Each structure stands twice: as C-alpha cells, then as structure tokens.
C-alpha cells in the first residue's frame, strides 16, 4: 500500500539571491556547515535582486471577492482540541484567475496574502478578522521580469513572508524564489533562493513532479523550512534536512505513522503549525492540523476534520496574533479551478491556557 513520506527541510540558503537555471553553478553554503542561515542575513541581496533600483512599485489589480458564511458542519468539541471555531467563508470572484490558492500568510496589517498554483499573488482584505469582499491579484515574475507562464514554472505552493519579502516554493520546477513585495509589489522579480533536487540526499528515491515543496515556513529561529509532499512504501515520517552542495540531505526524522500528506506550515513565536491532507475516493478529504514546539519531536493534533464536517482541498495555513492576544489559525483550500471544489477560508482560535473552549 502506498503511504506518504513527509519532509520538513530547513534550508541552508544560497548566499547569493540571483542564480542561473544550472544548479551546478548556483552558489550554495559549504556542505560542512550544518546550521541554517538566518533569512534576515540574506534579505539585502534578495531585495536587490528582486527589486532593482528604479523599478516602479506596481500594486495588484483590484478584484471583488464575494464571501458567503459557511458552518463547520458538526460539533466542535469532537474535532477541536483547545481550539474554538472562528468562522468560515466560501470565497468567489468574477476574476477568472482567482482560485487555486495553496500558500497563505498574514501580513502585518492583518491582510491575508495567498499564492495560487496558477502563478499569482492574491491579497484578501480583512476587517474584524473576516474577509471584506475586496482584494487584489498580481502575477509572479521570473528573474528576467517576465511573467511566469505555464504550470512547470508557475506552480507556486508554499508561502512565507519575512520583513516584506515573500518566499515562495514551487513544484514541478522545484525551487524557492523571493519577491520584494514591499518595495516593488507585483513588479517584484523572483530572486532565486534555492533549487531543490528531485532526488535529495537521504531520500530513498526521487519524488514526482507534483509532489514537491508544498509547505514553506520560518522555523522560529530565523531559518526557512520547506516541506516536501512525497511518499514511498512504509510508514509516514517527516525528516529535517540541510542543504549541501549536492542538494537536500535528510538526517532527522519526525514520526507521523500512517499520516496524510504535509501540505502547509506556519510558525508563530515558539510554535509551528503543520497542515496535513489526504483524499480517498468515496470518503473525501481528511484534514489535520498539528502543533510542534520542536520539529524534531512529535506534535499534537489540534484539528481533525472529515465528512460530515465541512472539508475541501485545504493546502494553506497561516498563524497570527489578534489584537486581544488570541492566536488565530487560518486555513485555505485550493479549488483547482474546478466547479466541483470550493475556495474555503476557515478560522480557528487557540484558547488561552486554562480557558475552556466554547
């Protein structure tokens, strides 16, 4: 029986934000260095490569985003552990390129930023921690300034934002790019952070083109973490890796027996939240959110959703602190631009220690 093997990979990032398509010439950190580089140390070079001097700021194209409230579809107590349901919305738009949302992040002003596997950034305006009905869309660009076209180049999946720079992971052409949205907006070019070999060191065999870097997050210590959605026969596990001159080398394992695929991650202070998803014909989607105080140790299941609860193809997760200090989790689903699926945005609030969830 095929079971997924899940990977959590702290990247030792390239010291140079630029690069070529040839991985042999991309500068990488020496293989002897085992600690991840702090992302902030790379930001000056990444910003210079993504938004060169004189590049004008381009805002995203305004779009309407209709939002219809959706219920959880069942009793919260049976599926949520010390978490309250904060609301859910079915999002639609008359913009034909709205959809396929995979990665998710919360910006400092509370606005949500998502990436689409159609190669676009989508900003979702929020007010009182709910979508307002408006937003923007902007299309991802390569290092040459041209729009990323086609599924091979534009299949963006994971998202992490650090000081106004959006880090985006891609499947098919497996890589991580950085976009200086703060300075250039939709005019930002994709500065190469790292390429990801389809046969990383320590992995028993290569992974498929559409089972690559689904999840992306910071690790709480200044590093960047990428999660590879892939599998092999046997029990599901997660592995922490470093980037060497030969590619990603997996060396630590995190037990996740028989679990679904890792599809999203985000960190808030000392906690990392991982989103897992599986699908079976006749059964539908199974969604799990697990929290980790340390990625090298086992986590705790906080949310588990399956039919008859409201579920869909959830792939993005973002964590943030609300004004009252409550920790909120958002998850968003990828509709694959299909009439049979929906773009759902759900919110969950983690109760304070000692507080009983409503």
Describe this protein's structure.
This protein is mainly beta and 358 residues long. It has three helices and 23 strands. The strands form six sheets. Strands 2-8-7-6-5 form a five-stranded antiparallel sheet, with no helix packed on it. It has a five-stranded antiparallel sheet with strand order 3-4-23-22-21, with no helix packed on it. The longest helix is centred in the N-terminal third of the chain and has 12 residues. It starts with a strand and ends in an 8-residue tail after the last strand. The N terminus and C terminus are likely disordered.
Describe how the helices and strands are arranged.
Elements (H helix, E strand, L loop, with lengths): L1 E10 L27 H12 L10 E4 L1 E4 L13 E10 L8 E6 L5 E5 L3 E8 L2 E10 L10 H5 L1 E7 L2 E6 L4 E6 H4 L6 E5 L17 E6 L5 E10 L3 E8 L2 E9 L5 E8 L2 E10 L3 E9 L7 E6 L8 E8 L5 E7 L9 E8 L8
Antiparallel strand pairs: 1-14, 2-8, 3-4, 4-23, 5-6, 6-7, 7-8, 9-10, 10-11, 11-12, 13-14, 15-16, 17-18, 18-19, 19-20, 21-22, 22-23
